[in-house]
Amino acid sequence: MEIPTKTDWKESWLGLDEAAAFKNFYGKDLKEALQLFEQCAMSYQEDLIYMPEVPFKYYVRAYFRFLASEKS
Fold first, then answer.
1. Rounded to an integer, what distance in angstroms lies between the CA atom of residue 42 and that of residue 58?
2. Helix axes 53-68, 30-49, angle to 10 degrees
3. What is the pTM of this model?
4. Mind listing the pLDDT tens digit of every residue in the chain (72 residues)?
């Protein structure tokens, strides 16, 4: 699975919470997303709720990796 494109985000950056998720995750690979969760999972996990389906399916994998790690 490839990094979600701007098209995959479906203009979700137009809403306030959606824009935060887009700003935080757009263009990041799974390793970079995992680093975000390791920095502050409580903040970044909420972004998953506001993602369209394609980015959600991609970035939730990083969140699951974080939950399975010793850093969670």
1. 19
2. 110
3. 0.93
4. 899 999 999 887 788 999 999 999 999 999 999 999 999 999 999 999 999 999 999 999 999 999 999 999
Question: For residue 6, what are the contacts with CB-CB under 8 A and spacing of at least 6?
Answer: 26
Query: Residue 30, exposed/middle/buried by CB under 10 A (0-12, 13-18, 19+)?
Result: middle
Q: Which amino acid is at 38?
A: E
Q: Output the six-digit token pair for 18.
A: 């959606």
Structure tokens at 24: 């935080």
- Residues 10 and 48: their CA atoms lie apart, in Å, by 15
Amino acid at 1: M
